Amino acid sequence: MDLYLKKKIDEADVVSFDIFDTLVERYVNEPTDVFDLVELSWNQNNPTSQINNFKEKRIIAEKMSRKQTNLEEVTLVEIYSNLFKEYPNIKIDNLRSEEIRIEKAVCKDKDIGKEAYEYSLAKGKRIVFTSDMYLDKKDIVAILHQCGYCKYENLFLSSDLKKRKKTGSLYIHIIKELNVYPNNILHIGDNINYDINNANKYGINTYLINNFLNENCFWKNNQFQKNNHIIRGFISRKKLQNDFYAAGYEILGPLLFGFTEWLHGYIKKYDPDKIIFLARDGDIIKQFYENRYRRDKAKIVYAYASRRGLIVPTLWKNPNIKNIQESIHFNDHIRILDVLERIGIDVADNETMLLKHKEKLDIYIDALNLESNKLFNEIFDDVREKIFQNSKKEYVCALNYWKNIISNGENIFVIDIGWNGNLQRALHRIIDDIGDINIKGFYLGINPKVNNGEEMKGYMFSKNRFEKNYYSLNHFMPLFETFFMNMSGSLYKYDDSGQGYRLYDYEYINKSGMLIEEISAINKIRLGSLDFLEDFMSYYQKLGIEFTVNDAISNMFSLGLYPKFYATKLFGNFRFFNSSVEYLACSKDNKFNINDFLKSHWKIGYAKRYIHLNLNYYRIINLLKTIKNYRRKF
């Protein structure tokens, strides 16, 4: 609290506080956004008596009520009497009660108002509350008490007195009721006209509270934000910087909140023996879940797994290229060297065997047609035996590793980021030899082209479930996966060492062993998401509205498809260390370059960053992608 406000309080005999946006703030962008939440809540709980377009009708009903009275203020009962004809089949009192419940749920104390109130109490000032509001006095008192404002002399409320700050009549009433000179009253409020100018007209001293609304959030208004009332309102009241912590709070936090709630529903339903989160993408999901559902902690296991680590040990069971093609998801065009690495051939360790093919290893091939590729078949024939010998060796190590985690007869849940289901199918092939084990996989998403059945479920998308989300995510998949990185390398393979596995070197440690800047970004993202959980949980419980998939993904998809310029700079320099250093969305010479654009892992972000035009890059790049796929067919 600033010294000027303290001085003004010190000089006053009576301190009058406006209530809404001064002492109390609501988790909404605008006061009328409360009506969006009322509609959401009512429709979720009353599927046979929906209240569509409630916000518009509720605003009109209030305007009609004000026109119908000669008094300065209306009540909520009067407003709802004009809503009855709009919803004749609904018990209007129940709907009114729901609005009151939501109003109470979205309210919290406002920091600067609370500080001024507590300072006034400590100084022994007479405290009164003054508000233009249609809610009944008992409901306003309930809101004040839940926000910690219990000690005061009087509450001057327009719905009770039929006088308003807007007209000035409420100030006349206050002066008379308190029996003090106007200049001995300090009124603190947020509205320049009703709280400041009108109070000054009657000789009352004033102090203006500035309203804060987080307009620097990562999302823009778009199709994903259309119905995102819960998260948008909550985050709009948070003072966050445009940094990686804010990205974790605004983007990863809501996503994990929705996913873990969905996952917990299945855990309650099936009561698995073990809940296995797979490294490394599952690390932050595990931490988030443990923080939220502490009672399940005894069942939780963190296990090392990767596509390469699980799939290579199973290749020997069906030793041919077709099986390799079906087991491993390759990018359209990939170097032969990278294909060999992914099927278990360490090129550095097999340099002699591959010597005659040395010049061919860096050639890019169409990985979707390995069987018909003569060049790949020629090399494959020379290393076939080595591939399947290595596969058998790794299989034994993988089996021993998983025997230490699961036992015969257990029902287990496997949790990971997801996509094509190859990892779970490979795990099945390994643990089938342990015994009768039932696996169910729960993922952020499963490729809709995959026939997942009951064994694999995707939260954001799967076959016949939000399939469009998958094709949208393909535009920024590497950006999405960036949010799930952790502080160690991913699994390279299972081995016969004491710990039972070997990790890849951690890519974000340089040759000198020093952590590089991406580490700081990863830590801040994780911290932001966990802080979101801590802050949001109590509000969500009070709100009592179902958290939908759209609520969970809207900020993430807004970032990926409709990024703001500063977001493309923040994430664009994020590096990936494959055969060379690659960036999410960065140009070497800080201007648009077609080669850098084609190599970019987030083309929408790259275009937004370097083409300085206000265009819908998602639509443009989606069109280009459609044309490319069409031409490939012919």
Give the SSE map:
Layout: H1 3-11, E1 14-18, E2 24-26, H2 33-45, H3 54-67, H4 76-81, H5 92-106, E3 107-109, H6 111-122, E4 126-131, H7 137-146, E5 154-157, H8 158-161, H9 169-178, E6 185-189, H10 192-201, E7 205-208, H11 229-235, H12 244-270, E8 274-279, H13 282-292, E9 300-304, H14 307-311, H15 321-327, E10 333-335, H16 336-342, E11 364-366, H17 374-403, E12 411-419, H18 422-431, E13 438-446, E14 456-458, H19 467-473, H20 477-482, E15 491-494, E16 501-503, H21 517-543, H22 549-561, H23 565-572, E17 575-577, E18 581-583, H24 594-599, H25 603-610, H26 617-632
Parallel strand pairs: 1-4, 1-6, 4-5, 6-7, 8-9, 8-12, 12-13, 13-14
Antiparallel strand pairs: 2-3, 10-11, 15-16, 17-18
Helix pairs in contact: 2-5, 12-21, 12-22, 13-21, 23-25
Describe the structure.
This protein is of the alpha/beta class. The protein contains 26 helices and 18 strands. The strands form six sheets. The protein has a five-stranded parallel β-sheet with strand order 5-4-1-6-7, with helices on both faces. α2 (33-45) packs across α5 (92-106), α12 packs antiparallel against α22 and α13 runs parallel beside α21 (517-543). The mean pLDDT is 91.
Spans where pLDDT lies below 50 across 5 or more residues: none
- Per DSSP, the total helix count is 26
Q: Which structural category do the helix and sheet elements fall into?
A: alpha/beta
Shape: elongated
Biggest β-sheet strands, sense, barrel: 5 strands, parallel
- Please list the strands of the largest sheet in the order they lie side by side: 5-4-1-6-7
- Our estimate of the beta-strand percent is 5-15%
